[in-house]
Amino acid sequence: xxxxxxxxxxxxxxxxxxxxxxxxxxxxxxxxxxxxxxxxxxxxxxxxxxxxxxxxxxxxxxxxxxxxxxxxxxxxxxxxxxxxxxxxxxxxxxxxxxxxxxxxxxxxxxxxxxxxxxxxxxxxxxxxxxxxxxxxxxxxxxxxxxxxxxxxxxxxxxxxxxxxxxxxxxxxxxxxxxxxxxxxxxxxxxxxx
Length: 193
Description:
- By secondary structure, the protein is mainly alpha-helical.
- The protein has eight helices and no strands.
- It has helices spanning 11-26, 33-40, 54-79, 84-101, 103-111, 123-141, 150-169, 178-190.
- It is elongated and about 55 Å long.
């Protein structure tokens, strides 16, 4: 392997795709730069051009997940039309669907075991948090969501949606109830007193 030439025009993307596939199929413990290099057909040192170590790879993979989830939620919000309740439902559905379909990636995204607490959120995380945060503020301004600290409400909404996804993926809630659970959660948040 060491004598194979570097032959990928976009090795970073190839490695991230392989890492996500490994994460989904074999779990986080099976993820290594050396194995990803072998799968990509490059020398074991080639991935270091893009990732200093395994932690850098995991951080990049998490950022990719945040960006993808943020894009899906933003697209769901935009596709729901001008009604804030419909936007909340679409965003909640997009989040739970992502969590169910890409559970290991979502776990990695929120694990953050070795991340520097003082570091600014990644670009992908900012895309996700901005999409949800903007929706919360619009919902509060429209009277569709309760007043108060929008950050706390954002955290509570994400925790609720994550809980639904966890219940479904663990088998504690039947998968066919996912839509109804999301609908009920959104109704609890948007219930006006």
